[in-house]
Amino acid sequence: MVFIQETKKEEFYVSEIGRLWYDDDFDFKFSATVGRLGGLLTIWDKSKFKAEKSLITSRYIVILGVWVDENLASTCINVYAPCNNLEKRNLWEYIVALRSVWMH
User: Fold this and answer.
1) By C-alpha distance, which of 70, 22, 69, 72 is closest to 52?
2) What is the enclosing helix (H) or strand (E) of 66?
């Protein structure tokens, strides 16, 4: 699994991701850049990680799934945190609350 921040892109296409990834058995989620800031991209090998649910905002991509070989449920988060300490703290508090809801 790969997490990339600051992509500066509004859209991604399968052909673009295919040039980055080592084979054709991948999936991905992205969050478009807002203005000149941000942009997130998460890529994973579908034979290794089975995604079941995702949540995407301009600040994070959350993917709930299972690591296939270990049959291990996991929540993977690609985060683009703000620089402002108060905003950063609020984001992390939200992510912790989200985790408790998703992880039952």
Assistant:
1) 72
2) strand 60-67
Q: What is the dihedral of CA 47, 48, 50, 55, to 10 degrees?
A: -120
Domains of the chain: 2-102 (3.60.10.10)
Side chain identity, residue 95:
I
DSSP state letter for 24: S
**Residue pLDDT tens, the chain, 104 long:** 999 999 999 999 999 999 989 899 999 999 999 887 789 999 999 999 999 999 999 999 999 999 999 999 998 999 998 889 999 999 999 988 887 777 65
